[in-house]
Design goal:
With 325 residues, the chain is of the alpha/beta class. The chain has eleven helices and eight strands. Strand 3, helix 3 and strand 4 form a beta-alpha-beta unit. Helix 1 packs across helix 2, helix 8 runs antiparallel to helix 9 and helix 10 crosses helix 11.
Length: 325
């Protein structure tokens, strides 16, 4: 019985990545972790330490984000955190989430109120998506963002993949191109965990509004900064000092960037596994190991990781510490 010869595989069509942008000054925002006590209370003393360490190394803290359990806090608790951070800042910059999911009625007045409160506290608002917001047509959605821009001098937008929260959405590119031309919108955080989607947005940004900032939220590809992204990451909260040094290496063209970035990415690969929200428990473990916070307790409703994760995290932290010397 004759058999046909194996057929050669079809040739791979090249799909090159965009050009790398070396020696760029990176703009780093670190989503600050909100520590908890074992009795289920926010630990504001440890939170102050988290904020101070972030400012001290040159990064900008972001509060009331996913890393700060914004979806699990009451409006009153989020307001407490905002006012606390505003007092701690003493005119230093910080970003704060405007989070309205679960509030009754039209989301727009809730966004306006929170954005104004954030601006009054000295922060830069970032607009979390909500079920009401993302359910609107592209025309209505764009009108909402434009109206929000009329209430403050500047704000950030957010594209949030549903692996992080069910009320998130990744917008199409036609909408994105119009969205980033809103004058008061000075940047967006993109959290799809997709290099390709982020590269597409960078290409539009470079063509339409080069000064606009795209903050990668891809904790599985933190090297997106090589292609022109800045960052707003939960991973950076594990070790903001290491991220700050990595950023300086990139600006200086120092090849030590790569080894330090690799160690940080290894930490991200382990801690941002499914279910993704469990990274916050890993973050608490790491910060406690580093002596930054006093407890790695989690608030009610948070996703927990197994205690054995500490044995995975500890050697990576040791490696990062060696690279900082």
């Amino acid at each position: 019985m004759e058999t046909s010869a194996p057929q050669p595989a079809p040739p791979i069509q090249p799909n090159p990545a965009p050009p790398i942008q070396p020696n760029r000054v990176l703009h780093g925002i670190s989503a600050a972790y909100l520590p908890w006590r074992p009795v289920g209370q926010m630990d504001l003393d440890s939170f102050a330490e988290v904020l101070e360490r972030t400012w001290a190394c040159g990064l900008i803290p972001a509060i009331n984000m996913d890393t700060g359990f914004a979806n699990l806090l009451s409006p009153e608790q989020r307001d407490t955190i905002l006012k606390f951070a505003g007092r701690q800042a003493s005119s230093r910059p910080f970003v704060a989430g405007a989070f309205v999911e679960g509030l009754p009625g039209d989301c727009v007045p809730h966004y306006r109120k929170q954005m104004q409160s954030i601006a009054d506290a000295g922060g830069l608002p970032i607009v979390f998506q909500s079920s009401d917001l993302v359910s609107r047509s592209p025309v209505d959605l764009l009108a909402v963002y434009r109206s929000l821009g009329e209430s403050v001098e500047a704000f950030l937008g957010f594209e949030l993949g549903t692996m992080f929260a069910p009320f998130g959405a990744i917008y199409d590119l036609d909408f994105f191109e119009q969205w980033i031309q809103i004058p008061q919108l000075v940047g967006i955080k993109h959290s799809s965990l997709s290099r390709e989607l982020e590269w597409q947005r960078l290409a539009i940004r470079d063509r339409v509004r080069p000064e606009f900032r795209i903050y990668t939220g891809n904790d599985l590809a933190i090297d997106m900064v090589q292609w022109g992204s800045d960052y707003l990451l939960g991973l950076s909260a594990f070790y903001p000092e290491a991220f700050a040094l990595r950023d300086r290496y990139w600006c200086l063209g120092d090849r030590r960037f790569y080894e330090l970035n690799d160690a940080l990415q290894l930490l991200g690969g382990i801690t941002f596994r499914n279910p993704v929200p469990g990274y916050k428990h890993n973050l608490a473990m790491a910060l406690r190991m580093r002596g930054v916070i006093t407890s790695d307790a989690q608030p009610p409703g948070a996703v927990s990781r197994p205690s054995g994760d500490r044995e995975l995290i500890e050697p990576i932290l040791s490696r990062i510490e060696q690279l900082l010397r």
